[in-house]
Each structure stands twice: as structure tokens, then as C-alpha cells.
User: Which sequence fits this backbone?
């Protein structure tokens, strides 16, 4: 057991070290991304001033719109990594022609899944932190509540979205291009899960039918939970409902997505299309 | 020339160390690449190409410590067969086991026992250095940091990659990329090595060193590596391999030691005898008294005072001795004897020719 854990960590580390070195070979891109986050945070600060004094009791999480947007963007960045990183990694390995070499090593499917995405999560953690950090440092945004509870929400939601990411990667493995999960979840999460505006507004302006879309997106529950904790300051007992919903999502999606990915790898091997793209 | 009988016959060959344990066992293997989304295409009445039958009814064993060659023209099924052993492609039917482990059900264990050096150049990370690439794959093979570095140092010395450690993969020459690929296959010191054209882009000296390395791997006194080699360089296959299989259109046409394959291909060899102190006319006169005139071709040799007589003879007959005796009794001094035996290229060509003939006769039957 201890040996297999060491072996697993060694392999994850190999991927992280590889991607770190590849990232270092594109230094400029790294610094430009930091700059772009600073520009986005600054822009949102000025837009938030338009809504100064906004006190509608229905939208408790949005009393400080800058804080709501920054948590939304930070968390969305993390969620997007969850469901797109594996598909991107698989696709990149296919295009580079290295997927066969990786799958030629004695590495299991779950290890490929975790290890391929590991660096993206390291990066997402850093950039998501930057949204919150710049808000706090330059524009006086304050967060309260339990950071540990917020972290639990973040972890759980990311795991659920990673399951969707595994389904997305399975699609990339078989169909190579045209991943519907990326399209629907990418645009869908930004629009319907409350990143930029409260989800209650959807039912008010577009009807309950459209509003139900936000209820089937795991990101909605994750974002709601994190904002309730960090902005409103709610505790564990008050955020139990979104937490349980996320657990149900995870219990259903995790085994299903792993099963589908295993099938996709087998299908690609049957068709001999592992290095095709 | 092989007969159609040979097409039906798979000769397992007498491997001199046949008592050694079996490293790779292939039984009734077939691989047909399916048409992707066939049902959908049929439903939409879209045109589709027929499924490709890449490997058909292949069975043979490779023993521990054996260097086994697989030769055949492009598209014969060599790469598919290699990839099936490497678990990268799943067979349609049949079984492949590596040291007793099934390539489909125990694929992870099989990969621990196999190292593949493919002919694909795009199998490394172009922006990483040669060393960083090896380090990455060493970790995937489960080597700890210190063991990986030690192993990489050994392989760097073995494959003369010393100067390349800090250079990006993209900057390496094709030959060095090739050597790096073989080095990667050997990272975890696997008992079975699958080498696809290992000397393809190497200069003659480097190729000779690579061949020596491959030979030493199979002959080392410790754990002998089993080498499964595919190559278009038939001289190399002949030099290295204990046994060779000829694959064509997905089927194994013949399998034997290189010498026996050549012998089976044709029982004749072309002999040239260079001689001096006897004119062509006198030699012709002397030889035609003992042998049929149609048997010989006499011509001037490369040197001014030398002539050459050429003829074909069956292996192990007395013709060579008799011709030498007649020439010497007529006063000739023998300068040299050369015999041109069929090469594996001749063997391969004859099987391809047979394929074409069979295809033509099949078409005639259809008409």
C-alpha cells in the first residue's frame, strides 16, 4: 500500500515537473497572464463603484459586487480547470504524438487522469489566489467565515467538475475534436451558475424553465456555498444543503466517468487511434 | 522460390536454445481495424472504406535471450504486431502473452516487462532536453530520482549521448533522436525489448555500435534480454537475429533461422572462379569436355591476366570441386572463388512475388 502510494506520487510529480519545465520555456506567457488578472480586477473595481450603496436584501452575497465577482472568477477558473484540463492534456499529447509513449509505461488509467491534470491545478490555485489577493491588496476586499469550509466546497466542486472533465477527455480520446461537454459546461457555467450575477435573476427575467439549468450545474452549488461562507460568513450547518448536493453529484459521476474513460482508452486501442488527432 | 505450400505452412524453426523459457507467446492472433462509427455511417448511407485486416492468424513464440527479427514490406503488419505486444493496440482475436502475462487483461504488468523503441519521431517533448525527457519517462516507469539519474548516466554513456544532456529534443539530429528512443526503451531494464528500425537514421559507425549493443543485451551473462526487432535493413536482421519471420499481408509466410530461410528460398548459389595462366578459349575447351556448355559463362576478369568462369550449382554438390580440378589440370592457377548466396532480400522478394502471383490467379478465377 505504502509502495503503491509512493509510486503514484512519484508519477504525479513527474507530470508536474514536466509541465513546470515546459511552462518555464514560455516565461512571457506566465507574466502576461498575471498582468491580465490585475487588469481584470482593476476593471471590476471601477465597475463595482457604479453599484455603490446597493442594498437589495434578496442578494445578500452581492452587497459588495467586487467581492462576489472576484470569488466568482477565482472559483470559475478553478472549476474550468477541473473539467477542461484532462481533455486538454489528452488532446495535447495526441497532437504532440506523446500519448502512446506515456501509455506505453506501466501507468494506470486513474494515475493518468490525476497526473495529467496536476500541473493545471497547481497553476489554477496560483491564478485563482491572485484574483482574491489583488482584490485584498489593492482594493480592500475583505473575506470572512471559515476558509477551511470554503476550501472543502472548492475541493468537492472541483472533484465533481473533474468527473465531467473525465467524460470530456473520453470524448477527445474517441472523437478527437468537437467536445460537447466543454462547450455546454464552459459557457453554461459562466452564464447560469452565478459567476457574474445572482442566479435568482434568471428565473425573474427568463422564467423558471431556464432557471432550472442553473440547478443542474454543480458549479452553481459550489459557488453558492463558497460565497455564503466567505462573503456572508455562514457556518457548516447553514451550508449543509449545497454540500450534500455536491456529494450526491460526486457519488454518481465519479464511478461513471472512470468507467467511460476506461472504455474510451480501450476503444482507441481497438481502433489503433491513440496517436491520431 | 517458395511454393504455395509455403504460404500455408508456418515453420516454427529450430531455435538452438528452444529449451529456454518463452518470453513472448503469440497464438492465433488477428487484428482487423474496425470502421469507426460503422452503424452510424450505414444508417446515414455514408460511404466507408472496408475494415483493414492488418494481422491474420499469427502464431509463434520468442524465447528468453533470443533476438527475433520480423521483416516484411511496408503495410505488412509489422508495426501492428509490435504495438499489440506493447499493449498499445488490442487484438481482434487471439492471445499475446509476455512472460506469461496476457497483453489485454494484464496490460500494466506486460508494460512493466516491455520497452518499446518506435520509429515515431514525435514521441518526446520537443521543448524539454534529452535528459529531462528521460527523467520524466524514468519516473513513469517508477524509478526513484537517484535510481533514475544513475540509469540515465549509464544509458548516456552507452548510447554516447553525453553532449546532448542539455540540448532540447527539437535540436537533436534524427540519429540522436533514434538513440534516445532506444535509451528510453531500456530505462527500466525490461526483459523484453521491442525495437522498430533501431538503426534507421544512424551513420554506419553508430549503427555498428548499436548492433553490438543489441547483441550484447541478449548475450549478457546476467539477465538476458529478449529482443523483438523489426527492420528494413535485411543485412542487419541477418547479422543480429537468431530467427526471422517474414510477414506479408498480415500473415507469417515463413519463420526460421536466416540460413535456413535462405536455403529454403533456393538451393542454388552463383559461383565465380577467377583464374590465370589459361586463356578463355582453352578454359572453354577444357570445361566443355567434362560439362555441358550451357552451364558456364566465361569472361575476362578485372585484372588483365585474369579470366572468370561463372556457373550455378546446387548446395553441397560436387560441381565446384570438379570445375576447380578441370581448370587446375589444364594449367590454370586459381586466383579466387566467390559464391553469391541468396540474401534475406531475395527471400522477401520471392514471397512478395508469390503474393502477386496468387493475387493474379485469384483474380483469374473470379473472372
Assistant:
Amino acid at each position: 500500500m505504502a509502495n503503491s502510494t509512493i509510486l503514484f506520487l512519484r508519477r504525479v510529480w513527474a507530470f508536474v515537473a514536466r509541465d513546470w519545465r515546459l511552462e518555464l520555456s514560455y516565461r512571457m506567457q506566465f507574466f502576461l497572464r498575471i498582468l491580465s488578472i490585475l487588469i481584470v480586477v482593476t476593471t471590476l473595481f471601477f465597475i463595482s463603484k457604479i453599484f455603490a450603496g446597493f442594498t437589495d436584501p434578496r442578494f445578500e452575497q452581492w452587497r459588495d459586487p467586487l467581492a462576489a465577482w472576484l470569488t466568482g472568477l477565482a472559483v470559475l477558473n478553478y472549476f474550468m480547470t477541473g473539467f477542461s484540463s484532462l481533455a486538454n492534456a489528452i488532446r495535447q499529447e495526441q497532437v504532440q504524438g506523446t500519448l502512446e509513449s506515456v501509455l506505453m509505461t506501466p501507468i494506470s488509467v486513474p494515475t493518468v487522469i490525476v497526473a495529467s491534470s496536476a500541473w493545471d491545478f497547481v497553476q489554477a490555485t496560483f491564478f485563482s489566489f491572485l484574483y482574491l489577493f489583488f482584490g485584498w491588496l489593492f482594493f480592500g476586499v475583505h473575506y470572512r467565515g471559515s476558509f477551511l469550509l470554503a476550501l472543502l466546497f472548492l475541493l468537492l466542486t472541483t472533484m465533481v467538475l473533474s468527473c465531467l472533465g473525465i467524460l470530456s477527455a473520453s470524448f477527445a480520446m474517441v472523437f478527437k475534436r468537437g467536445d460537447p461537454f466543454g462547450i455546454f459546461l464552459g459557457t453554461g457555467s459562466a452564464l447560469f451558475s452565478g459567476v457574474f450575477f445572482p442566479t435568482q435573476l434568471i428565473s425573474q427575467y427568463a422564467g423558471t424553465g431556464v432557471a432550472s439549468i442553473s440547478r443542474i450545474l454543480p458549479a452553481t452549488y459550489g459557488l453558492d456555498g463558497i460565497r455564503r461562507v466567505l462573503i456572508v460568513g455562514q457556518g457548516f450547518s447553514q451550508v449543509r444543503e449545497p454540500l450534500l448536493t455536491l456529494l450526491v453529484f460526486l457519488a454518481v459521476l465519479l464511478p461513471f466517468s472512470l468507467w467511460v474513460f476506461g472504455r474510451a482508452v480501450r476503444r482507441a486501442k481497438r481502433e489503433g487511434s491513440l496517436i491520431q488527432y | 522460390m517458395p511454393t504455395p505450400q509455403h504460404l500455408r505452412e508456418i515453420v516454427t524453426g529450430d531455435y538452438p536454445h528452444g529449451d529456454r523459457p518463452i518470453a513472448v507467446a503469440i497464438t492465433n492472433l488477428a487484428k482487423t481495424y474496425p470502421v469507426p462509427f460503422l452503424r452510424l455511417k450505414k444508417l446515414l448511407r455514408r460511404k466507408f472504406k472496408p475494415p483493414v485486416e492488418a494481422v491474420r492468424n499469427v502464431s509463434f513464440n520468442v524465447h528468453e535471450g533470443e533476438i527475433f527479427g520480423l521483416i516484411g514490406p511496408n503495410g505488412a503488419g509489422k508495426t501492428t504486431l509490435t504495438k499489440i505486444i506493447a499493449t498499445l493496440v488490442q487484438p481482434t482475436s487471439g492471445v499475446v502473452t509476455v512472460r506469461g502475462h496476457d497483453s489485454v487483461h494484464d496490460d500494466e504488468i506486460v508494460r512493466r516487462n516491455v520497452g518499446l523503441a518506435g520509429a515515431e519521431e514525435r514521441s518526446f517533448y520537443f521543448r524539454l532536453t534529452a535528459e529531462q525527457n528521460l527523467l520524466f519517462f524514468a519516473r513513469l516507469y517508477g524509478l526513484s530520482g537517484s535510481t533514475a539519474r544513475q540509469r540515465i548516466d549509464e544509458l548516456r554513456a552507452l548510447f554516447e549521448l553525453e553532449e546532448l544532456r542539455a540540448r532540447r529534443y527539437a535540436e537533436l539530429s534524427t540519429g540522436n533522436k533514434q538513440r534516445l528512443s532506444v535509451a528510453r526503451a531500456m530505462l527500466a531494464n525490461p526483459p523484453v525489448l521491442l525495437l522498430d528500425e533501431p538503426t534507421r537514421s544512424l551513420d554506419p559507425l553508430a549503427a555498428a555500435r548499436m548492433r553490438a549493443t543489441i547483441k550484447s543485451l541478449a548475450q549478457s551473462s546476467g539477465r538476458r534480454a529478449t529482443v523483438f526487432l523489426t527492420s528494413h535493413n535485411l543485412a542487419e536482421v541477418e547479422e543480429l537475429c537468431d530467427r526471422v519471420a517474414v510477414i506479408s499481408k498480415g500473415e507469417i509466410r515463413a519463420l526460421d533461422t536466416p540460413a535456413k530461410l535462405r536455403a529454403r528460398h533456393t538451393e542454388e548459389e552463383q559461383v565465380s572462379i577467377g583464374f590465370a595462366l589459361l586463356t578463355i578459349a582453352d578454359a572453354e575447351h577444357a570445361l566443355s569436355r567434362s560439362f555441358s556448355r550451357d552451364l558456364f559463362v566465361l569472361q575476362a576478369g578485372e585484372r588483365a591476366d585474369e579470366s572468370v568462369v561463372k556457373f550455378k550449382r546446387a548446395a553441397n554438390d560436387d560441381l565446384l570441386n570438379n570445375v576447380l580440378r578441370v581448370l587446375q589440370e589444364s594449367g590454370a592457377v586459381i586466383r579466387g572463388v566467390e559464391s553469391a548466396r541468396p540474401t534475406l532480400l531475395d527471400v522477401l522478394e520471392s514471397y512478395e512475388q508469390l503474393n502477386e502471383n496468387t493475387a493474379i490467379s485469384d483474380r483469374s478465377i473470379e473472372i
Remarks:
- Chain A has one domain: 2-271.
- The radius of gyration of chain A is 20 Å.
